[in-house]
Amino acid sequence: MELYPTIEKSDLKSIKTFQESKLKELLVYLKSNSPFYQKLFIDNKIDINEMKTLEDLTKIPTTSKNDIQANNQDFFCVPQNEIVDYSTTSGTLGDPVTFGLSDKDLERLAYNEAISFVCAGIQKGDVVQMITTIDKRFMAGLAYFLGLRKMGASVVRMGPGIPELQWDSIFRYKPKYLITVPSFLLKMIDYAEKHNIDYKNSSVYGAICIGEGLKNQDFTDNILSQKIKERWNIQLFSTYASTEMSTAFTECEFQIGGHHHPELIITEILDENENPVQEGESGELTITTLGVEAIPLLRFKTGDLVKAHYEACKCGRNTMRLGPVLGRKQQMIKYKGTTLYPPAMNDILNDFNNILCYQIVIQSDEIGLDEIIIKVSAENNDENFVNELRDHFRAKLRVSPKIEVLDFEVLSKNVFNPTSRKPINFIDLRN
User: Domain 1-327, what architecture?
Assistant: First the structure.
């Protein structure tokens, strides 16, 4: 198995030609096996034989998560007895969306994670501690495990939470890398400092970070990343993926965006009118999966707003790189003339060392305008803290949200809900 695929070192023209060949294979497969795309091709009078280039993709309508939710079974291209694993992801219409994986899909998933981990610098024989769940129908946890085993790394399956157990495991098994939500690293550091654990001299070299952003748009460290590195000098690698993509965009050692794997996915960055954006502009990431057997997707709109970077990387890969996610398209907030996304507010809140946990709630007021409520629990919940927090919002984002101070015991139960795979820091109550 090639863990540094040749196609990633090829010139851009060769990559494009390769992807166009894979696209033709996918279209034939969808026409033969996918009830949803069979209907879509007929309804829109699409002749797949006319789809010869990546640019021709724009002739095909996009697919959204709502489409999958409303027609879940029609997306399956294999019979139920060939599904070996089920995963779910949250749906915008209420019920979760089911994804099934065949044996071939699990193999592809393992390969994706293996080449992604190699991209971040993990090597055969390294010990990696997984601080993430592998159960609860969570595809990512399974993917991490399969990928690490495929590339020959050793895995410590710790699962999320409980800093004491994480440190016990670190000093017992000496992992070189952690896979974790980055904000949890701060909890581990806090625990270590309170219990005189010599964490700075542990075996940990770096962390593959999931679920939360680490970088600003210019690839400088954001506030969360800065706070971690100020206290613990380890490498932090961003990775971006989703259940729908079954593909990860992971940073290499130069940490200037997550690398695209051309053999696994075709990407488009689209504006509000579903036209490709100009180079250097941000738009909605829209993907076409390659090599997926059970539920392949064609022009699926992820909802994530990103910017692509095309200049060659010093690591030798010539593939496109994705910058940090600007925000979710559906989570865009219009507040008193200012457009906001949750990551910008996360940065503000992460700037305060005394905040124990927080939750951003967006709702519509009585006249239909967006209203922002920041629920916080802090070590000092006095009026000065609230005023300082409000002033910081005004200075950085030119908005002054409503702030509610709650006891940690009350708020933490909502933020760290045991039924959720990651902290619930954002709730959108708008219809």
Answer: 3-Layer(aba) Sandwich (3.40)
Question: What is this structure's pTM?
Answer: 0.81
Burial of 117 (0-12, 13-18, 19+ CB in 10 A): buried
Residue with tokens 């940490």: 255
Taking each continuous run of H as one helix and of E as one strand, the counts in the chain are 11, 20
Candidates 401, 378, 421, 350; CA nearest to 144 is 421
Give the residue from 423, 381, 386 showing the smallest Cα distance to 187: 423
Query: For the segment 194-246, what is each residue's pLDDT rounded down to a tens digit?
Result: 999 999 999 999 999 998 889 989 999 998 899 999 999 999 999 999 889 99
Query: Nearest CA to 171 among 123, 209, 204, 131?
Result: 204
Domain positions in the chain? 1-327, 332-428
327 strand-pairing partners:
305
The position carrying tokens 């390659």 is 290
Q: How far apart are CA 340 and CA 326, in angstroms?
A: 10
Q: For the segment 133-149, what is each residue's pLDDT rounded down to a tens digit?
A: 888 777 888 999 999 99
Give me the phi and psi of 106, to 5 degrees please: -65, -40
Burial 165-189 (b: 16+ CB within 10 A, else e): ebbebbeeeebbbbbbbbbbbbbbb
* 48, amino acid identity: I
Which residue in the block uniquely carries the two structure tokens 């016990």? 168
Residue corresponding to tokens 């951003």: 360
Half-sphere exposure of 113 (CA within 13 A, CB side): 26
Cα–Cα distances in Å, from 175 out to 110, 143, 170, 183? 20, 19, 6, 19
Look-up: residue for tokens 């440190």?
167
The CATH number for 332-428, chosen from 3.65.10.10, 3.40.718.10, 3.30.70.1070, 3.30.300.30, is 3.30.300.30
d(CA 340, CA 403): 17
